[in-house]
Amino acid sequence: ENFRRAIGLRIKENKEVYEGEVTELSPEESESSTGGYGKSISHVVIGLKTVKGTKQLKLDPTIYDALIKEKVAVGDVIYIEANSGAVKRVGRCDAFATEYDLEAEEYVPIPKGEVHKKKEIVQDVTLHDLDAANAQPQGGQDILSLMGQMMKSRKTEITEKLRQEINKVVNRYIDEGIAELVPGVLFIDEVHMLDIECFSYLNRALESPLSPIVILATNRGICTVRGTDMTSPHGIPVDLLDRLVIVRTQIYGPIEMIQVPISCLIMCSTFLCRNAFNVCLLCVADISY
């Protein structure tokens, strides 16, 4: 799981969207199909304005639910995906910035270009996000839901078979140029505590093209590999040790031990932290003895 959390995927999608400032939002009601005195929303009329022009749209009632969920009001800047009907509230139009003296609203400029346009949407996800989305697939508006719809069976847990299926889809996306792999860094401290089975998994996982940069840290010399009777440097099996670049770290010497509090002293004098200033002076005094 941590391996897949450290592997990122940048997915680019070109979508047709309707984007602009909301100038009109009018839900139209009709008699309920179930009878009685109740009424239901038949459609929604929404007006969008950009720098180049305006457009009035007649939307499905289900999109009205998404508008309510996003708390869209007149004066907000939104975009609506043409294919899925997903609604995203970008912020409040900056023309209303002087409406209140203090508020927590984010103001954005009115969109340029036409109301109906093609827009490139970039999403950064990890392989674990895709695993979790497919383990509990739900209808949604993002790329995670799109990947979930590709899998026919509705899985309830993250299995090795599910991960292999996702890897196939990810590799296909990379070959088609839709997605870009962004390898991260996985840091494993106290690596000598891992047993032989963990090292076997690490050895196999590092051979995969979808693998992050792995940094192992330990403070042991020659010791026994857990789960076996053999001894090895740093408690790591020799077959894995041969594939590693060993970077030796050393204990701070007298010069480094003086440089640390002096640098802290400079920072404290910059920020005028008197208490920390005194602490740094004590550190320097102790080291000088």
From TrEMBL:
Keyword Transcription regulation: yes
The keyword Magnesium is annotated on this UniProt entry: no
Keyword list, A-Z: ATP-binding, Helicase, Hydrolase, Nucleotide-binding, Nucleus, Transcription, Transcription regulation
Reaction equation(s) it catalyzes: ATP + H2O = ADP + phosphate + H(+)
Pfam family for this entry, one: TIP49
InterPro entries: NA-bd_OB-fold, P-loop_NTPase, RuvB-like, RuvBL1/2_DNA/RNA_bd_dom, TIP49_P-loop
EC nos: 3.6.4.12
GO cellular component: nucleus
Residue ranges constituting the TIP49 P-loop domain according to the UniProt record: 1-252
Domain of life: Eukaryota
Entries under Gene3D superfamilies matching the protein: P-loop containing nucleotide triphosphate hydrolases, RuvB-like helicase, domain II
GO molecular function: ATP binding; ATP hydrolysis activity; DNA helicase activity
Annotated compartments: Nucleus
The family this protein is said to belong to: Belongs to the RuvB family.
Protein name as catalogued: RuvB-like helicase
